[in-house]
Write the structure tokens for this entry.
Amino acid sequence: MDDSFAIDEVVRRTGLTARALRFYEARGLVSPLRTQSGRRWFGPAELERVHRIVALKKAGLTLGDIKRLFDRKPIDLAALLSAQRERLAVQAQEIGDAITLIDSALSRINRGEPLDAATLCSLIRDGDTVMNDQAKAWKDVIDRYYTPEEQAEWHAHMGAAPQVSTPDYLAQWRALSDRIEAALPLDPASDAALAFVREWFTLLEPFSRVATPAMWEGSARLYADMGAWEGKADAGFSKRVWDFINQAAAVARAAGKDIGPVPAFVQARG
């Protein structure tokens, strides 16, 4: 098994979760090698298949679609990579054009020049396109996990916490997630892990203050299944970070430690 990795090493190198890899295996999408003790190992063939799964998911296919595709015929990896490259190239071009436009606008502002109507329209268009794409992605995810009645409950309660919808708030989640990612792997029982947990729940406090038990549990289910939609909607943090925080929080609570501001109904569970 010189040219293969144990599942924990695959998790570390790819950012995927062990749960996602085991789920792919359970669905018959990948068949990792097994040691005599039953430990999963992934060689080039298995990792190539995992790459195909991830790429096809990002292209919008469900795991059921991918399974049917795998069962029907082998997948041309070169064609898949080419399509993935083309999609990324288009995104890169759009991002590059937007950055160029912003740099030009900043340069004019720094020179004391007003922005003309055409430039302002372009800035609005580019910003609106990004926001609309992300909003649609989130709507697709939310519609999958919440009934219209549950969504109405969310809207009614979250009106008291408007800050959770701001770009600045999402940027704070990204910054925290990046620091946690950089620290992993990390002992969930360590002081550093507890510090991250407390920072996490402090940042989550605007939601915690207004959440009902149903909203709290629904949110937990949504993110527990993050492997099914990660890459389509931007949560501000990765599945790997979510799993770590949940593990570290459980360890801290079991030890009777304060994990930060959480709803009273969560505290009551002990």
